[in-house]
Specification:
By secondary structure, the protein is mostly beta strands. It contains no helices and 11 strands. Strands 2, 4, 5, 6, 9, 10 and 11 form a 7-stranded mixed β-sheet that branches. The chain has a 4-stranded antiparallel β-sheet with strand order 1-3-8-7, with no helix packed on it. A hairpin with a 6-residue loop joins β4 and β5.
Length: about 120
């Protein structure tokens, strides 16, 4: 059983930066594709970014491409999401997720964290 705990969310002004962390525990965490999703107020959960098991491959949704960076440290069982040039539309609850398959579909992810709130004020 994989457990995921997010941290690092908060209130930030437009143009600011935040770094989210996801601490993972459980067997063979390093074998999973890890991703970040987000759920804006009143909207469905959406894919943000994913990183392969060894960190060698990353994929981003268009709205965050060039502003967000996903990375992982398997020695520390931690996944990061560095968010720069934040915009009001980035306001959402951000979730960490783990998948043995790896995709942009939430249903393909077996394990989820509880989420961390990110609010970008203008």
């Amino acid at each position: 059983q994989v457990q995921l705990v997010e941290s690092g969310g908060g209130l930030v002004q437009v143009g600011g930066s935040l770094r989210l962390s996801c601490a993972a525990s459980g067997p063979t965490v390093s074998n999973y594709v890890m991703a970040w999703f987000r759920q804006p107020p009143g909207k469905e959960r959406e894919f943000v970014a994913a990183v392969s098991w060894n960190g060698g491959s990353t994929f981003y949704e268009d709205p965050v491409q060039g502003r967000f960076t996903i990375s992982r440290d398997n020695a520390k069982n931690t996944v990061f999401l560095q968010m720069n040039s934040l915009k009001p539309e980035d306001t959402a609850v951000y979730y960490c997720a783990a998948s043995t398959l790896g995709s942009t579909w939430a249903k393909e992810y077996e394990y989820w964290g509880q989420g961390t709130q990110v609010t970008v004020s203008s």
